[in-house]
Amino acid sequence: MQLFVDNLTVIDFSYVCPKRGIVGESWIVDVLLNGDLNEQSMVLDFGIVKKQIKAIIDEAVDHKLLLPILSDSVISSASAHRAGHEYVDITSKVGNYFLHSPACAFTHINAQTITINSVTEHLTKIIFDQLPNNVQGLTIKLRAEAIPSDYYHYTHGLKLHDGNCQRIAHGHRSKIKLFENDKRSETLEHFWCQRWEDIYIASESDRVDLATVELSPNAMKNLDKNHQLFAYHAPQGRFDIAVPSNKLEVVDCDSTVELLADYVARQLKKAKPGNNYRVVAYEGVAKGAIANV
């Protein structure tokens, strides 16, 4: 007997790519269970599937930075600054990134690259070990939202968030709809999606200097003038990141989707004050915010 749940959840996360650097991503999760019927004449109660399995997935990968630990592009080590924290040093073709965060902000994937297959394998093992004995098989399908228009990948952190959004390197794969004088502009959408391709979005208020940043000894030796430094304290701990300037957008606000929608609207209005703009900004799949100027 088989039991399925489509669109069980969406995982929003970022991952390390040796070519692209840190990439924000959003994947939809479908689940298929194989097994015998239990005493309730079920393979597994839908409530358990939707709550327990979703919780396992969220704990494992959602709002985290996924690290391909078999890749030479990633070095992770225990923090000398704070207990329970971890250094992560990343090399890529677009530049080097250096992070310091609570260990819960990272997931180590036993692979050379982060792909749908490698994350599926990681999740399948974790989830299957926690299922009842009557469940004999588990199939997880991870898939990106089908987006017929332009989209972008971004990474950020929200220091004021009490939940996992506070993690300084989690991200999303998002579309955006832009209207100029009530007419949709694919030209403007393309421009912003190119501008924010694989971007890290930081808040100016989180900027720190070399004297106060907390990074690994290796990072401190390899920082250069192209790096910009950001850090903050949040409920889960201390978060630091050094980002290459070519993959960075620094905004004058927090990076919630509401304020990012407003930020884009303000940039458009500044360029053409006589026009009216409507910005429909998405945060991953099927959620977002609207700003009008």
TrEMBL record:
It catalyses: 7,8-dihydroneopterin 3'-triphosphate + H2O = 6-carboxy-5,6,7,8-tetrahydropterin + triphosphate + acetaldehyde + 2 H(+). Pathway: Purine metabolism; 7-cyano-7-deazaguanine biosynthesis. Transmembrane segments: none annotated. The keyword Metal-binding applies. It is an enzyme of class 4 (lyase). The keyword DNA-binding does not apply. Its EC number is 4.1.2.50. Its cofactor is Zn(2+). Keywords: Lyase, Metal-binding, Zinc. Belongs to the PTPS family. QueD subfamily. This is 6-carboxy-5,6,7,8-tetrahydropterin synthase. It comes from Thalassotalea profundi.
